[in-house]
Input
Amino acid sequence: MRSIWLVVIAFLSLHAAEVVQVGEKYKSSGKCKACHSHIVKQWESSWHAKSHYEIDEYFQKTIDYVARKNNRKSLNTIKIECAVCHNPRISVTSTNADYEAIAALELDKNTAATKALESDTISEGINCVVCHNIDQIHDNLPEDKRGMNRVSWMKSGVMSGPYTDAISPYHKTEQRPFMDSNPNQLCFVCHANDTSEEGHRFTDMQSEFKSGTKQCVDCHMSPRKEGIAATLRDTNGKAHKRLIREHGFVGGHVENMWKGALKISARKSAQGLEVTLNNPQPHALPSGFGSREILVEAEYKKGSKTVKVESLSLTSHYLSKRGKPTIPHLADKTLEALSVPALGSKTVVLPIEKQADSVVVKVSYRLVNDEVRDLLELKNPIWSKKMAIQTLNMKL
Ligand code: HEC
Ligand code: HEC
Ligand code: HEC
Ligand code: HEC
Ligand code: HEC
Output
């Protein structure tokens, strides 16, 4: 029995964070351009490409805030924790008390940890060699082992992909089911659950997911369609026709993805104005990262004049250990979590304005709710922009 446990422990620690260096030839997307330029271009527009401290303001300010409120851990230690999913090709996966001591004195410039965080291997966030260098996904590991802690990597220079017969002069190829028949497994490596510094699970996307006919990639890449995977011609002078998907990973940051994402209806009742939000998607909305928000606004009119605006927000609020409003990553508990469940609906009631003869009901989405935007002092207008889902006009 004891020896079995030893084996299990050895296995778990082996996969705690495996690091395989990525060769110069493969580590940046620029190296793939000669033959996959269309894919590189699509990926560059995605938020996977922005997943880095220097690029995403929200990510940066969240890390700064967590480090400021935590006097046991340095900024770089927090960055390394987050890298597990946000920058999983990082070469250093943990820091120790010695590191904290030198970091506090700002003498950490030449340490492996600081160099790893400054390395261009991670500067592109979730790039090609994050997904296409994964060899195996270890779903037998505990639920909270995610990102680089859940995978093992291919040897540098081998690309995992959907095809069994792909031949490239630049790299080796290997087919993997998570690139083909079971792509949700790949997305769930990171988009599954996340836990705060206090050990509170503030998001649980995988458990709320209702599997059906569509996979994440059908909606957030594209349906499979005819095209080419590589522009390079083979020895017969032809580029292969293939079934491919787009690499834009369009999501919450893309306004036109929100159009019609929920189906809205409204009616007057004894309680007030009842607005029903139907969610045809297989995950809740808002979902994924905490503090996203769906806004329901009713603009009451008399003739063409606006007489009153009522609004209501579907979002999550978090409390710190000291009972104060905080950001998801420092939450001790979720005070309130409002969203429209997967393949379900939610009805909200807004007060009716008696003088009005009509109402415009607007439902929209915001990436960050007021509370967290204020706490982090986010500046970029994208965080407060209302992205339209649907608008209804109704006589009262
Ligand atoms: C010199 C050209 C060239 C370069 C550079 C190149 N590739 Fe490829 N790649 C190919 C060719 C050719 C194929 C096969 C296409 C086919 O058969 O349709 C391919 C196939 C692939 C596949 C699919 C593999 C499979 O088995 O399904 C992936 C993934 C891939 N490349 C990723 C990359 C990445 C990532 C880079 C940059 C680090 C890169 N490639 C650089 C030529 C290249
Ligand atoms: C290695 C971890 C990882 C894997 C694997 C991964 N993602 Fe992501 N994904 C992220 C992170 C981190 C972000 C947020 C980046 C940011 O905003 O800075 C993100 C962002 C996104 C977004 C943008 C969400 C928004 O609100 O705009 C979409 C869509 C998305 N991922 C879809 C997918 C799909 C589909 C898959 C599977 C094919 C996948 N991801 C695999 C980590 C991952
Ligand atoms: C978040 C994970 C993720 C990232 C990042 C990513 N890919 Fe892919 N890629 C996939 C998935 C999943 C497929 C399989 C699509 C399917 O079902 O056919 C794929 C398919 C491919 C293919 C086969 C042709 C196609 O378009 O379906 C090539 C070639 C490829 N990727 C190259 C790249 C390159 C080059 C980059 C970087 C610019 C990149 N990928 C970044 C997940 C990713
Ligand atoms: C049937 C289509 C569909 C499928 C399947 C699907 N999504 Fe979505 N998802 C949407 C739509 C529509 C939205 C809202 C608009 C947007 O953000 O693109 C959304 C939003 C998101 C967001 C942003 C959520 C928020 O509230 O900010 C993330 C992250 C995401 N999806 C990830 C995933 C992952 C991971 C999977 C697979 C486990 C998946 N989605 C499967 C349609 C889908
Ligand atoms: C378990 C994997 C995982 C870990 C660990 C993780 N994240 Fe994330 N994070 C994600 C995924 C996946 C997304 C995209 C989900 C979405 O958009 O709904 C994301 C999105 C975010 C966003 C929203 C970015 C945007 O542009 O809207 C912020 C901010 C963020 N993470 C901060 C952090 C910080 C800070 C840490 C470390 C303390 C961290 N994350 C650790 C998986 C992770």
Summary: The chain has two domains: 2-214, 256-395.
